[in-house]
Amino acid sequence: FNKTDNLNGTARLWYTPTPDHDIMLEAHRSRQQYWETPGESATGTSDVYRDYLRESYTFAHTGRWGPGTSQFSYIYDHGSRDAFTAGAADSWMPDVTNHTIDGSYVTPLGDSHMLSFGGQWRRQTLDIGGMRNGQLPPLPDGTPATGQLVAKVGQWALFVEDEWKLTDSFALTGGARYDDNSIFGGHVSPRLYANW
């Protein structure tokens, strides 16, 4: 059988400086390690080791401003995989990092409307590299490769939505969202639905 160790942990702290404001801090870390040993494992002819690591940190704030409520959060997320076969580092050991900021505000307008608006910003970086051991596999023509294989994507979005309560049991909601991606460009997504 293959050997696997799993370890997960999350710590969360809530702080309420005033009755109208809540602050939350969170840290999460998970790690999975995997071993494969010839003669002891079900498959494989070489010693194999895999190490999957993920960690994330969150800051969040909720504010109550009279009739309206705001939500804000920042999330940092990082994941990596180290891999070794017969004691040698594998060619591909991906490493990904995400930064995400979310913000929104919800407030009533009169007796029958609930307005929501906000935005999001995100940056993603993927190192598909090899490359913490400093070596890239050669190009298809045999030319030695140099540098890092890194992909970066940025995206931001804005949205607005209004819920119109026509009766006590029927509401009509309409809104729109605009997304702008550094690779695919901008796109508007309208929405309209009813709740009965």
Structural commentary:
The protein has 196 residues and is an all-beta fold. It is built from no helices and ten strands. It has strands spanning 3-18, 21-36, 48-65, 68-85, 88-89, 95-109, 113-127, 150-165, 171-181, 185-195. Strands 1, 2, 3, 4, 5, 6, 7, 8, 9 and 10 form a ten-stranded antiparallel beta sheet that branches. Strand 1 and strand 2 form a beta hairpin. The chain is elongated and about 70 Å long. The mean pLDDT is 88.
Helix-residue proportion: under 10%
Radius of gyration, rounded?
A: 24 Å
Number of helices: 0
The biggest sheet amounts to: 10 strands, antiparallel
Spatial shape: elongated
Order of helical and strand elements: EEEEEEEEEE
List keywords for this structure.
196 residues, mainly beta
Topology:
Layout: E1 3-18, E2 21-36, E3 48-65, E4 68-85, E5 88-89, E6 95-109, E7 113-127, E8 150-165, E9 171-181, E10 185-195
Antiparallel strand pairs: 1-2, 2-3, 3-4, 4-5, 4-6, 6-7, 7-8, 8-9, 9-10
Quick overview of this protein structure:
The protein is mainly beta and 196 residues long.
